[in-house]
Amino acid sequence: MSDNFQFINLPRLDPEKTESRVRIHTWNEIYGQFDSADAGNQAGRCLECGNPYCEWKCPVHNYIPNWLKLVREGNLFEAAELSHKTNSLPEICGRVCPQDRLCEGSCTLNDGFGAVTIGSVEKFITDEAYKKGWRPDLSNVVQTGKKVAIIGAGPAGLACADVLVRNGVKPIVYDRYPEIGGLLTFGIPSFKLEKEVVRVRRQIMEGMGVKFILNTEIGRDIGFQQLLNDYDAVFLGMGTYNYMEGGFSGENLTGVYKALPYLVGNISQVENWETKADIREGLGMQDGYINLKGKHVVVLGGGDTAMDCNRTAIRQGAASVTCAYRRDEANMPGSKREVANAKEEGVQFLWNRQPVSIVGECQAEGVKVVTTELGQPDARGRRSPQVVQGSEEIIPADVVLIAFGFRPSPAEWFKDFNITVESNGRVKASATQEFAFQTTHEKVFAGGDMVRGSDLVVTAVYEGRQAAQGILDYLQV
Ligand code: FAD
Ligand code: SF4
């Protein structure tokens, strides 16, 4: 029987986390898994408060209290089915979502009791159900005979494929990389998301009837016109891949690297992947694997990518890792959990420091920074940093990693097909079009980072799913 006051006697418990002194020597995920008893007990802490703010704050509006209840009752397969009604990658979102500012951040139990461990239960459901033989139930699907090409096997493309195949439309997903996942595979390090999790998701999706055509770049290996000819509609989920520069001197010195090529080089080394020359070129990975063992490293930026650089450098055995960010800790964009993990692993943070140049003759020797204070909030409520006069200092460094984020990277060929790009480079498509996430080409839909700018896995999933609904409406199936 349910006990709505279980949260009083049973404190919040997170799955066991590997101690920092141990985990910095491995590339494994740092969080363990609940066993069935702990998952049930933690799920049972849900108050069923009647107004589930967690659902509203979750970008895909997961039926959180409902699947928590199923876990508490031990109905794992039902929980897995329900969880997939709103989320195409629940085990991945359970691992990488910044729950502290999404679902868990809005849990009623934050008032002194500790939020329900929603993310960990979400990952438990699919991981454990899959191990016990659960596979998505597509027994009622009626085939429509329609087929849709999807460009990009990242979260947006995968989510779009998931909804289409469940509605009897055949998705064929093209990606230039040799494995699915987009930034899940070629970006996020394995200590946050082991690559085996993405491989399992591929097996699930292939089992559902999704076809992947990998190592194939649209616009180079296959022309876009051919997709328009061969398919009933096309979805673009191509991400954002232009690196933001600091715009200050010294960025071209030896020892200065961009975040994503550094991270992908390391993942390739850890996973023992041969990264093809054209992928290396596309990602700006001319330097290949960059080993920072023994180096004094400065990471510039305050988002998830910066945290991943910090923690990768620590695991490579850097002599020191210092992360400089121009706002204070409360105003940084990265997940609070990841900042805490980085601190535990030995990363030093310098808040309110804005880089003005990278110093050195040929080789980077340090980063010149100024101290900042936060001014009044702007129209969007963000407080912009103001420079404190006379506050220049140099942080010594052998290596500088630049993690300022990404700008949109619209393909040259979009203009040949009337696919409109906004002045900021994002593809024009939104929930408010006649058909959700339709572009200015009636047969072409788009979503994820290339439409909203670089953001989160879960928001890319949301847009991929919404776009799939737009495609179904457009195809009238
Ligand atoms: P992507 O994941 O970028 O996928 C796009 C895919 O399209 C790629 O596979 C690419 O190869 C393919 N493609 C592009 N052009 C073509 C073409 N012409 N032909 C064929 N294929 C093509 N989010 C979180 O929620 N939590 C995190 O902890 C987190 N950490 C991150 C860490 C890093 C280092 C980075 C870079 C991002 C992180 N993010 C995180 C953000 C998240 O990964 C992205 O928001 C999300 O992956 C976007 O999904 P997408 O499908 O739009 O694009
Ligand atoms: Fe929370 Fe993300 Fe899962 Fe939504 S998808 S319930 S925000 S972990």
Automatic annotation (TrEMBL):
The keyword RNA-binding does not apply. Keywords: 4Fe-4S, Amino-acid biosynthesis, Glutamate biosynthesis, Iron, Iron-sulfur, Metal-binding, NADP, Oxidoreductase. Pfam families: Fer4_20, Pyr_redox_2. Its EC number is 1.4.1.13. Residues 146-464 form the FAD/NAD(P)-binding domain. Pathway: Energy metabolism; nitrogen metabolism; Amino-acid biosynthesis; L-glutamate biosynthesis via GLT pathway; L-glutamate from 2-oxoglutarate and L-glutamine (NADP(+) route): step 1/1; Nitrogen metabolism. GO terms for biological process: glutamate biosynthetic process. GO terms for molecular function: 4 iron, 4 sulfur cluster binding; glutamate synthase (NADPH) activity; metal ion binding. Its cofactor is [4Fe-4S] cluster. It catalyses: 2 L-glutamate + NADP(+) = L-glutamine + 2-oxoglutarate + NADPH + H(+). Residues 23-133 form the Dihydroprymidine dehydrogenase domain. Catalyzes the conversion of L-glutamine and 2-oxoglutarate into two molecules of L-glutamate. NCBIfam families: gltD_gamma_fam. This is Glutamate synthase [NADPH] small chain.
